[in-house]
């Protein structure tokens, strides 16, 4: 770190306790600190990282996942933080312009769980419609970045057609359709966009193709009733009330891993979903470790030290091979039992809703899956 962190004799890290293998990646030895320089890690639940904690602890480094909003409100009374690392792909919880103004370095973990999320989508679709193992269906993919393009690889391997829509990328063999075509011509539509709002003077980082409520009543009306919809991107990409009305009208199979009002879910939505899971599409041993590795590498760069820890040293043997699953589709439940995740979430319903603490608890205690080797 070009400033204070290099010159102090200890580094204080405040971190979300849901980040994998924190102690293994962030200690004096892995951060290249001399013997007299300590590294203190204070871990708390991500939603408990707040302005008063930051003012009290004055950490040098803040390590988060997606549930901590990082903005002026969090950091206004803090002048110690010099690096924020989010062990997630999504960045909608971070005000990056504010961090830049404060000269705070920011890193996220682009691509860390791309295979895990793609495998979640395949599992959902193939558990609900096992006949798709043998059929050349059309998979519609909205957002062709790391996850969307990884999903394409599996779809190609299964002999599926892909209709892709991504207005921010050049047209190509994959980016081959309009939003209307994807919605109206696919057997399954899967969303892989970031959560963005409209670009404006007040929001220069916004998008000309905002995704908040991209799937609203009008979009849903374009989809045939038997088109399955899967959202493992961000909840507010789908307008929840419009979705409830759509399912009531069409009986559509809808799979949600993320929810507009997360971490709360209303029973009137939950009861209509084919599968509902508590934002765990990326929760594999590999996906989470890769997230930690990426922000660790970025912090090492900031500290100008060579990274010495690697996730490969921490990974248990992995025997989950995509080639095996493809040859034996009946083994899907052993690769990923999505029905179990769905049942665990539904078992938490009390008085017509899932409470936020229960939703977060399922995520905290989640038994991480293994990522299939592609
Ligand atoms: N459920 C979960 O556990 C996880 C959810 N996610 C979510 O998935 C999102 C996507 O992840 P990646 O593919 O790795 O991100 P990425 O940044 O690699 O790709 C996103 C793609 O979406 C495209 N896009 C943006 N606006 C669009 C629009 N209006 N219509 C169509 N395409 C649009 C972009 O051009 C980009 O190519 C993340 O931002 C995150 O919110 C990521 C990891 C795990
Ligand atoms: O990477 C992302 O983006 C995600 O959504 C994560 O996989 C889930 O992040 P947490 O909510 O566990 O921070």
TrEMBL record:
Role summary: Catalyzes the oxidation of erythronate-4-phosphate to 3-hydroxy-2-oxo-4-phosphonooxybutanoate.
UniProt: substrate binding residues: 66, 88, 283
Homology family: Belongs to the D-isomer specific 2-hydroxyacid dehydrogenase family. PdxB subfamily.
Functional pathway: Cofactor biosynthesis; pyridoxine 5'-phosphate biosynthesis; pyridoxine 5'-phosphate from D-erythrose 4-phosphate: step 2/5
Protein's UniProt name: Erythronate-4-phosphate dehydrogenase
Domain D-isomer specific 2-hydroxyacid dehydrogenase catalytic: from-to ranges: 47-301
Catalysed reaction equations from the record: 4-phospho-D-erythronate + NAD(+) = (R)-3-hydroxy-2-oxo-4-phosphooxybutanoate + NADH + H(+)
Record-listed E.C. numbers: 1.1.1.290
Source species: Psychrobacter fozii
InterPro entries xrefs: D-iso_2-hydroxyacid_DH_PdxB, D-isomer_2_OHA_DH_cat_dom, D-isomer_DH_CS, D-isomer_DH_CS1, D-isomer_DH_NAD-bd, Erythronate-4-P_DHase, NAD(P)-bd_dom_sf, PdxB_dimer_sf
Compartment list: Cytoplasm
Any one annotated GO CC term: cytoplasm
Residues annotated as domain D-isomer specific 2-hydroxyacid dehydrogenase NAD-binding: 137-281
Keyword Cytoplasm part of the UniProt annotation: yes
Catalytic residue positions: 234, 262, 279 (proton donor)
Assembly with partners or alone: Homodimer.
Record key words, sorted: Cytoplasm, NAD, Oxidoreductase, Pyridoxine biosynthesis
HAMAP family: PdxB
List of residues binding NAD(+): 166, 257, 282
A single GO BP: pyridoxine biosynthetic process
Gene3D superfamilies in the cross-refs: 3.30.1370.170, NAD(P)-binding Rossmann-like Domain
GO molecular function: 4-phosphoerythronate dehydrogenase activity; NAD binding
């Amino acid at each position: 770190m070009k400033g204070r962190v290099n010159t102090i004799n200890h580094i204080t890290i405040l971190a979300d306790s849901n980040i994998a293998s924190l102690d293994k990646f962030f200690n004096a030895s892995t951060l290249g600190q001399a013997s007299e320089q300590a590294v203190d890690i204070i871990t708390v639940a991500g939603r408990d990282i707040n302005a008063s904690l930051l003012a009290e602890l004055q950490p040098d480094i803040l390590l988060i996942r997606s549930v901590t909003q990082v903005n002026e409100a969090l950091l206004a009374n803090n002048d110690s933080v010099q690096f924020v690392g989010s062990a997630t792909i999504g960045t909608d919880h971070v005000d990056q312009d504010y961090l830049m103004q404060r000269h705070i370095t920011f890193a996220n973990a682009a691509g860390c769980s791309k295979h895990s999320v793609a495998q979640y989508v395949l599992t959902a679709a193939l558990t609900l419609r096992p006949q798709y193992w043998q059929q050349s269906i059309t998979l519609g993919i909205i957002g062709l970045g790391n996850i969307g393009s990884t999903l394409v690889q599996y779809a190609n391997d299964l002999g599926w057609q892909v209709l892709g829509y991504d207005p921010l990328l050049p047209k190509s063999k994959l980016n081959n359709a309009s939003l209307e075509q994807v919605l109206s011509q696919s057997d399954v539509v899967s969303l892989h966009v970031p959560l963005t709002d409209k670009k404006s003077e007040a929001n220069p980082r916004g998008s000309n193709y905002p995704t908040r409520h991209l799937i609203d009543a009008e979009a849903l009306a374009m989809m045939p009733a038997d088109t399955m919809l899967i959202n493992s991107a961000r909840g507010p990409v789908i307008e929840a009330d419009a979705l409830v009305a759509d399912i009531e009208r069409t009986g559509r199979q809808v799979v949600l891993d993320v929810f507009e009002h997360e971490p709360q879910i209303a029973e009137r939505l939950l009861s209509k979903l084919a599968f509902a899971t508590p934002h765990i599409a990326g929760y594999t041993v590999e996906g989470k470790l890769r997230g930690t590795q990426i922000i660790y590498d970025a912090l090492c760069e900031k500290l100008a030290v060579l990274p010495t820890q690697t996730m490969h040293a921490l990974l248990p043997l992995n025997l989950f091979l995509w080639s095996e699953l493809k040859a034996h589709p009946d083994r899907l439940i052993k690769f990923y039992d999505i029905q179990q995740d769905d049942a665990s979430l539904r078992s938490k319903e009390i008085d017509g809703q899932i409470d936020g603490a229960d939703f977060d608890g399922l995520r905290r205690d989640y038994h991480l899956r293994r990522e299939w080797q592609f």
